[in-house]
Amino acid sequence: MTNRSSDLDDSRKKGAFYGWYIVAALFFASFLAIGLRHGFGVFVKTWEEDWGVTTAAISLAASIGVLCNGLSQPIGGWLADRYGGRPVLVFSLTVMALSTIAVSTVSSVFGLIILYGVLVSFAAGGVSHPAMAVVIARWFDRNRGAAMSILVAGGSVGGLVVVPFLSYALVEFGWRAAWVIIGLLALGFGVPLLLLIVRNKPSELGMQIDGEQHDESNRELPQSSAQYIGPDFVNKWHQALNSKPIWQLSFGYFVCGITTLAVAVHFVRWAVSEDITEATAALAFGALMFVNALGVLVVGVLSDRFQRKNLLGTVYLIRGLAFISLIVVPGDQAIWAFAVIGGMSWLATVPLTASLTADVYGVRNLGTLFGFANMSHQIGGAAAVLFFGWAFTRFGSYDIPFMVGALTLLAAGIVSLSIREKTHSVRYVQVIPEGTVGDESSLRDDR
Amino acid sequence: MPWLTETLAHHSEPIDPVLWDWISAEINHLLGISSGVMVVLLGALIMVLPMALLVMARRRF
Question: Which residue has the higher pLDDT, A51 or A378?
Fold first, then answer.
C-alpha cells in the first residue's frame, strides 16, 4: 500500500467516507448546471426589448436547447461509461461555462440558438444525471439511493437560488454581465471542485465501495454485496434491451416526462384559466419546488431500505392523485394540493430509476442505459406539451389532459410495481462469478 | 396553430418568464430587499458550498 493510500485509510477512519465529498461536489455541479438552464427564462423579456424580436423567436432557442440536451444525455452517459465520469463532467462543465460567458456577446436570436440552444445545452447533457450516476454507482452500493437523491436535490436547490440570483444580477448589472458572472462562477468554482474532489472510482484512492475495509483473513468469500454480480448484468448496453426491466423503467420515465414537463409548461395558463391570483400561483410554485427537494431526499433514503420498485410505483400513484386533485378540487385549493402531493413525487423518480437500473444491469453500462431512459423522458414531455396545448385549445379546459395524465400515471405505477426486483436486482439475487474471488477490485469498480 | 406558438412561448426547461415575474414580485413583496443586496447574498450563498467543501476535503485528505 502506498503512503498516499495509507494516509487516506487513516483519515477515512476518522471521518466521513470520501464518497460523500464526491456527492457534495456533484450536488454543486448539478446546482449550477440546472440552475443556469432554468435561469434562461429570466432574460426573455430583456432580449425581446433589446433585439425587437418575439417571445416565440427566443423560445426557438430554448426548444432547440431542450432537444439538444435530451440527445446529449445518452451520449454523455455513454462517454462516462467508456472513459469514466470525471473527465466527462469536467470537460462538459468547462464547455458549458465558456459557452455561457460567450452568450454575453450575442446580439441576435441566431447567436442565441448556436451558443445557448446548441453549445450550452449539449454540454449540459454531460453534467446531467446519467454521467453523475455513473460516478455515484461506483462509489456507493448500500447508500446508492440516498447519494443519488442528494445530487438530484442539487438541481432543485439550484433552481431556487441561481434563478433569483440571475434575475437580480440582470437588474443590477445588465444581462450581459449576468451571463459572464454565472459563467465565471461555474469556471472558477464548479470546474476546480470537480477536478480536485471527484474520482471515477474508489480504487483510484485505494478505497473500497461504501468505504468498506478489506477482511484479509477471509479471502474465500466476497467482502460485500458490491463484489457480487446480478443475474441480468450486461457487458454491452444493447443486451439489456432483451430483458423486461429496462422497458418497464423506461415506460415509467416516459410517463414521468409527460406529467412533469406538461405541467411546467402549462402551469401559468392553467392558473389563469382557474382565476388563481399571481401571488398564490407564485407561492404555490415555490412550495412545490421546496417540497420536491425534500421529497427526493426522503425517497432516496427509504430506497436503500425497501424495494425500490415499490417506492417508484408509489411515487407514480401519488403523482396520479395530484393530477386528479387538479380536476376535482376547486382552483385555489387545487394548486396547493398539487404543490404538496405532486411536489413529493416531482423528482423522486430520478434516484429510484437510476439506482434500480444499476442494481439490475450493473454499473458498466449505467450511463448509456439511464441516458436512454432520460431521452424517453424528454420525448414523452415534448409530446405531452403539444397534446396539452392542443387539448386546451380544443376543449377550453385542462380537465381532459389532466385525466390523461392521471391514467398514464396509474399505468406507470402498475408497471413499476410489476418489476420483479427480487428476481432481477443484485440486492436480492447475487451470483459469484467463477475465478473472481480474491480479485474483487475489478468487480467492485465495473460490475 | 396558435396553440403551438403559445406553448413554445412558455418554455419547458427554462423557467416560464411570466411565472418568474409573479415569483419575483412576491419575493420583493415579502422581503423588500434591494437587488444589489440580493445579488451579494445569493452570490455568497453560491460560493459558500464549494469553498467550504474544498477546505474540508483539504484538511481531511
Answer: A51
Every domain of chain A and the residues it spans: 17-205, 227-424
CA nearest to A268 within chain B: B19
Is A390 in CB contact (< 8 Å) with chain B?
yes
CATH topology of domain A17-205: Growth Hormone; Chain: A; (1.20.1250)
Please report residues of B whose CB lies closer than 8 A to that of A27: 49
Shortest alpha-carbon distance between residue A199 and chain B (Å): 13
B26 CB neighbours in chain A (<8 A) are 278-279, 282-283, 286
Q: Cell numbers at residue A212, please?
A: 468498506
H helix runs in A15-54, sequence order: 18-39, 44-51
- The residue written with cell numbers 450536488 in the block is A27
Chain B interface includes A282 (CB < 8 A): yes
Count: domains in chain B: 1
Q: Which residues of B touch A37 (CB under 8 A)?
A: 13-14
A209, A123 Cβ separation under 8 angstroms: no
Min Cα distance A203 → chain B (Å) is: 15
What grid cell was written down for B59? 484538511
Reported ipTM: 0.83
**CATH superfamily label, A227-424:** MFS general substrate transporter like domains (1.20.1250.20)
Query: What torsion do the CA atoms of A274, A277, A280, A282 make, to the nearest 10 degrees?
Result: 100
* Confidence bin at B31 (pLDDT 50/70/90): confident
Segments forming the whole domain that contains residue B32: 2-60
Instruction: Give chain B positions within 8 Å (CB) of A285.
Output: 19, 23
* A128/A73 Cα distance (integer angstroms): 7
Taking an 8 Å cut-off on Cβ atoms, the answer to whether B11 and A69 are in contact is no
The pLDDT confidence band at residue A15, using thresholds 50, 70 and 90, is confident
Q: Report the alpha-carbon distance of residue A269 to residue A385 in Å, rounded.
A: 12
Model pTM above 0.90: no
Q: How far is A234 from chain B (nearest CA, A)?
A: 33
